[in-house]
Design a protein that fits this description.
mainly alpha
């Protein structure tokens, strides 16, 4: 259950990161509300997950999911570059996330 909460927290991190783009500096009401709610829920779920997972592992996985997902959403939603080097680096982050899960307790 802790890993599920952590993955969900990472997905919410993607949501608020992309939400920042749509909120346009918190000048648009509903995208701003979505962003702030996503931020709060993401941190809350991270806090619940670290009750039983190592904090270093949980934080790295949380930020990794957020980073990988945000880059991929930036490519899909905003036409950001999908160069081979960029995709390779995303793959490295993903490998780190999987590696941390495989060697972690909990």
């Amino acid at each position: 259950m802790d890993w599920f909460l952590l993955v969900l927290a990472g997905m919410l991190e993607m949501g608020w990161a992309v939400g920042l783009k749509y909120a346009e500096g918190f000048t648009r009401l509903w995208p701003s509300v979505f962003t702030l709610v996503s931020m709060a829920l993401s941190v809350l779920l991270l806090a619940l997950a670290v009750r039983h997972l190592p904090v270093g592992t949980a934080y790295a996985v949380w930020t990794g999911i957020g980073a990988v997902g945000t880059v991929l959403l930036g490519i899909v939603l905003f036409g950001e570059p999908a160069s081979p080097g960029r995709l390779f680096c995303i793959g490295l982050i993903l490998a780190g996330i999987v590696g941390l899960k495989l060697v972690s307790e909990g």
